[in-house]
Write a structure and sequence with these properties.
By secondary structure, the protein is of the alpha+beta class. Helix content is 42%, strand content 19%.
């Protein structure tokens, strides 16, 4: 594994352990050249997934990009990083279990929205504002109305 600090290819594993949910191996690594320390994760990948963008362009699915976009939505929110990791792993498992090698970007966005809605309302609204391309304050009002109009079961009071 190449060192992210000095690009040395001869790094050493100092500690390995499974993640809390058992879906990955967390490895602490050390670089003898620059004395840098860093963490890597080893995960099972069932199939190569391609994301089909709205434009029709196809790009390889990137778990790290998914994680970064979720972390942007969760910035400065009191959410345990382990919960975020479990959420991302769950989304990836759901995508892989669809049985398709090509997945629409809208499908990924919907799964993220569902997961964030259960995790943190503020992050959900932040992500929705980008995902749904909000342009006006009323777009936020409508989404917040949906959130506040639900009871604990996710159903509106009208039912």
């Amino acid at each position: 594994m190449r060192c992210p600090f000095c690009s040395n290819e001869e790094t050493q594993v100092k500690d390995s352990r499974p993640t809390e949910d058992g879906t990955a191996i967390r490895r602490r690594r050390y670089c003898p050249d620059c004395s840098g320390r860093f963490t890597t994760f080893e995960r099972v990948q069932l199939r190569e997934l391609m994301v089909v963008k709205k434009t029709g362009r196809r790009v390889p699915f990137d778990r790290d990009k998914l994680m970064r976009s979720i972390q942007v939505a969760l910035r400065k929110r009191p959410v345990d990083p382990e919960r975020v990791e479990r959420m991302v792993s769950g989304i990836v498992r759901r995508l892989e279990s669809l049985g398709e090698s090509e997945i629409k970007s809208e499908t990924v966005g919907k799964l993220v929205m569902e997961a964030l809605k259960m995790l943190d309302d503020v992050a959900y609204v932040r992500f929705a504002s980008v995902y749904k391309n909000f342009r006006e304050a009323k777009d936020f009002e409508e989404l917040l109305g949906e959130l506040s109009g639900e009871d604990d079961n996710g159903e509106t009071g009208d039912n």
